[in-house]
């Protein structure tokens, strides 16, 4: 791997966001089906609306730095989603972007640190912990595995999402279901796996 | 307050009808609360159930006379959206998410604000609505 290969610029982050928008579009029905089992059946449509707005904004204008791309994407999600995933994903991306600061490029170690700040923002906003059957059950193991590379992060994310199936929900609307939330994959954990997968695919493609 | 400014009240619900009805109820029960800047911010732009960050931020700005604004919310994304807005300074200075039940808290907040009480007093009155036991 040449040194240049792990330099992540604004265009890299834009491609990540566009890849996520595509993934959400093709998986929207699946996400909504997961959400109809334990939620209010809007996760796919909500995220699709949000990431479509992100993609439109980033096609219209590419901010100069990777941090600014993520801050813009996060702001779009907070504005457009209309469900709890809006502020949660919005905070994740925005806090990641802020942690990257004004640098024109980031290396993979810096991106990993920034993503950790993003995950910390999700914890702070939603008050959930790993094991509560939320997006954190994907993001926390994915971030831990990211030190070993993007493919490892992707595998950990996909496993984390599936590992929510036997869990009982302790946050959000699904928590009202108590034990009846057991046996279903958490929709937020599933969409978080799409986000990490999109990152891994874009990183492999550089 | 001696300068005649009132604390604003913003009611956030997943439902536009709930937010508007609670606002109407609170204003009616407060009696003569016309002076309180009271805004409902419910539902999504397409008329569906959900929360709209831009609508909430606009309502908070409109309710801001300079004496502060309390935001009362129902649940889930309403709580998270207001917190995310506050985190990024997208609400007016002196705007606060109040930990209060929506209906009872709204009545307490509007009544208290109508007396010209300051932000801390309005916030306390809304929060104390949790202490009123019904059984």
UniProtKB/TrEMBL annotation, chain B:
Domain PTS EIIA type-4, residue spans: 6-135
Single GO MF descriptor: phosphoenolpyruvate-glycerone phosphotransferase activity
GO BP annotations listed: glycerol catabolic process; phosphoenolpyruvate-dependent sugar phosphotransferase system
Top-level taxon of the source organism: Bacteria
InterPro entries xref list: DhaM (IPR039643), PTS_EIIA_man-typ (IPR004701), PTS_EIIA_man-typ_sf (IPR036662)
Cross-referenced Pfam families: EIIA-man
Membrane-spanning intervals of the chain: none
Keyword set, alphabetical order: Transferase
One GO cellular component term noted in the UniProt record for this chain: membrane
UniProt xrefs under PANTHER family: PEP-DEPENDENT DIHYDROXYACETONE KINASE, PHOSPHORYL DONOR SUBUNIT DHAM
Name this polypeptide is given: PTS fructose transporter subunit IIA
Organism annotation: Streptomyces coryli
């Amino acid at each position: 791997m040449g040194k240049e290969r792990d330099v992540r610029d604004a265009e890299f982050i834009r491609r990540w966001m566009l890849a996520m928008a595509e993934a959400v579009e093709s998986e929207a029905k699946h996400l909504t089906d997961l959400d109809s089992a334990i939620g209010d059946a809007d996760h796919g449509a909500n995220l699709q609306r949000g990431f479509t707005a992100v993609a439109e904004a980033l096609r219209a204008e590419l901010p100069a730095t990777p941090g600014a791309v993520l801050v813009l994407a996060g702001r779009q999600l907070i504005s457009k989603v209309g469900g709890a995933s809006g502020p949660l994903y919005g905070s994740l991306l925005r806090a990641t972007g802020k942690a990257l600061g004004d640098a024109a490029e980031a290396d993979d170690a810096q991106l990993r640190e920034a993503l950790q700040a993003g995950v910390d923002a999700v914890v702070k906003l939603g008050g959930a912990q790993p094991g509560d059957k939320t997006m954190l059950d994907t993001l926390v193991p994915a971030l831990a595995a990211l030190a070993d590379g993007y493919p490892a992060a992707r595998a950990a994310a996909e496993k984390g999402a599936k590992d929510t199936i036997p869990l009982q929900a302790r946050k959000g609307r699904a928590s009202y279901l108590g034990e009846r939330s057991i046996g279903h994959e958490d929709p937020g954990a599933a969409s978080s796996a799409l986000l990490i997968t999109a990152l891994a695919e874009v990183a492999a493609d550089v | 307050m001696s300068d005649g400014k009132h604390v604003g009240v913003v009611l956030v619900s997943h439902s536009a009808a709930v937010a508007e009805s609670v606002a109407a109820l609170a204003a009616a029960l407060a009696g003569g609360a016309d002076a309180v800047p009271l805004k409902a911010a419910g539902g999504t732009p397409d008329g569906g159930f959900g929360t709209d960050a831009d609508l909430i931020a606009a309502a908070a700005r409109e309710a801001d006379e300079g004496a502060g604004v309390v935001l009362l919310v129902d649940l889930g994304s309403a709580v998270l959206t207001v917190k995310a807005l506050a985190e990024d300074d997208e609400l007016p200075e002196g705007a606060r998410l109040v930990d209060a039940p929506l209906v009872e808290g709204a009545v307490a907040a509007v009544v208290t604000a109508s007396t010209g009480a300051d932000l801390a007093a309005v916030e306390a009155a809304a929060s104390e609505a949790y202490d009123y036991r019904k059984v």
